[in-house]
Structures are given as structure tokens and as C-alpha cells.
Amino acid sequence: MLPKLKSALPESVRSYLPEDATGLAKLTGALQVAGGISLATGIGRRVGAGVLALSSLPALCAANPLAKGPGQAAAQAELGTNVALLGGVLLAAQDTEGKPNLAWRLRTQRQLLASQAAKQKAEVKAAKLAKKNSTNPRDWPWYKQYWQTYKVTAEVDPQLPWLLLGAFAGVLAVFAIVAFLVPPWWMWLLLGVFGGITAAMWVLLLRAKKATYTRYAGQPGSAEVALSMLDGKKWFHSSAIAATRQLDAVHRAVGPAGIVLIGEGSASRVKPLLASEAKKHEQVAYGVPVTTIVMGDGEGEVPLDKLAGHLKILERRGLIALTRFSGDIGFYPDEYLEIIRTYMGK
Predict the structure, then answer these.
(1) Is the pTM of this model over 0.90?
(2) Residue 308 in this model has a pLDDT that exceeds 70
(3) What are phi and psi of 292, to 5 degrees?
(4) End-to-end distance of the chain based on CA atoms, in angstroms?
(5) CA-based nearest residue to 297, from 185, 214, 228, 231
(6) Do residues 307 and 295 lie in contact, with contact meaning Cβ atoms separated by under 8 Å?
């Protein structure tokens, strides 16, 4: 059997096989001893069972139960014994002691990955659908945002279409004149188209801001519109920190100019309310400037559409500084706001 096995194997593998049957018997015996110890101790049990099964193959191949003679019965008995032992060690090799085998774990892992991939795909699809049907302008694509801005602004500003057309045509005309005088003409015309679109968008944003003020002018809480247009990294505002039954309200903005209180409503009712709130804030934020503003169209009042610009003017007049207990000295309006809310509860 050994010569036939060598002739069937590649040259690189033949050198590892014994030269005669005695060497093969010794190798088989060593493998069986190692496999038996592994199976008995439980250390590498499945590997040991596999080694025992592999080492029993030479004996199975050498047995000839069909040969006639006095040893036929013994050969058949030996074959049955070896087959039984082979079946036993194969069962031991497959036994996982109640734990999932490798095939089951691979199959389960494959199913889990497929399930997770399907779930992620469904979530992405649902997110895209939700974003497509969302009513939040932040979820819309840029062209839909501009179109919606145009429609809302045009309801309040009937001149908007003509202003946009004029901005586009004016810039394009300037570049057309340049194209007529300076070659290449197609480059200047292309720049004129892009420049006209940019000018039209700029006009749209300006008119949209003005239309927003026009839409909310005179309504309670309209100061929130102007405060929301401030730089959110510099200014922190709170709406209606004090109010009356007549819907007069005081709003607060904390920023580079200190604490700014904006009164909204009838001046005769708002001014006493502003004075009271200013006194409370001066007691809490000692040394921080507190400025009061009455929003309105009367004398000494700041109109809604000029409120944000008025706060920016106050901002440019000088910054305030806050000394921290730790860290750098600098401008921290969020900490002012935290102090105010902690001690005033609003």
C-alpha cells in the first residue's frame, strides 16, 4: 500500500512519508497515542479525534476481509472493529458539547450580516423618503429652498420678479459690453450668465429678509424674528422673559455688547417693565452693561427691520470680557447667560 500511496502523491510530499511499512506503523502508532491523549484529556479534543480517524485509515486499507483462508474470520472482525472505532472518533470530532459548530456559526453570522445590511438599506431608504417629504426647509435640496423662498417672498413683495429679472439682465448687459470690446466674447458671456444668477440670488435674499419683517411686523413676539438673524456664535437670546396680560413682552439677548433687553408692545407699559428687568439683571450680572431697547415705530424706538442692525452697532462699540475661574480670559456670553438663568430662573 505504501508504494502506491507514494506514487499518487506529489514529489514534495513523498519525502515526508516513511520508507517502509515499519516506519509507517511507527508513525501511525505515534499519531494514535497523541490523538488518544488529546481525546482523553479534553485538550484539543476535536483535533485529537480527527487525528485518530486519520491514523485508522491505513489499517482499514490494509485489511482484506474477502481473502479466502483460515484468517478470513479474524480479518472481518478486525475490519468491523476498525470501522466502529472510526465511527466513534468521527462522532467525537463532530461533538461540540452543546456549543454551535463552525458551520452553524458561519451560517448564522452570514444571516446576521445579511439582516443588518437589509436593515441599513431600509433605514437609508426611509431616511431619503422622509427627507424628500419633510416640511423642514433644512432637509430640502438647495434649489427647492430657493424656490420656496421665492414663492413666500413674492406673496408679500409683488415687485420681486421684476427686481430679479433686472438684476440678472443688468449684470449680463455689462458683461455683454465687455465681450464686445475684449475677446474672447464667449468667456465674458458665460461669466455674465453666472454673475447675473449670483446677483439675482443676492437680491432674492435681501428681499426675503425684508418680506419676513413685513409679514411679522405688528404681531406679538415679532422681535424673535430679528433676534434669530443674529450670529448664533456671538449672541444668545431668550424670548419673553417677562410679559403682561396685554401681550407686551421683554426679550433678552446676551452677546458682545453685554445684556440687551428688548421691549415689545406699548411704550407706556413696556418701559416700566424694562426698567424692572434691567435692575434685576444688574444685580445678578454685576459690572456687565445692561442696555434697554423699545422696539416700535415711534420716536426713540427701534423698528423691527432695524433691530438686528442696531444690535450689531452696539456690538462694534466694544466687547465685554469675563474673567473665568479657570482657563483663559475672553468673551463667553454663554456663561453670562448661564449665570443669569441660574440666579434669575429664566
Answers:
(1) no
(2) yes
(3) -110, 140
(4) 96
(5) 214
(6) yes
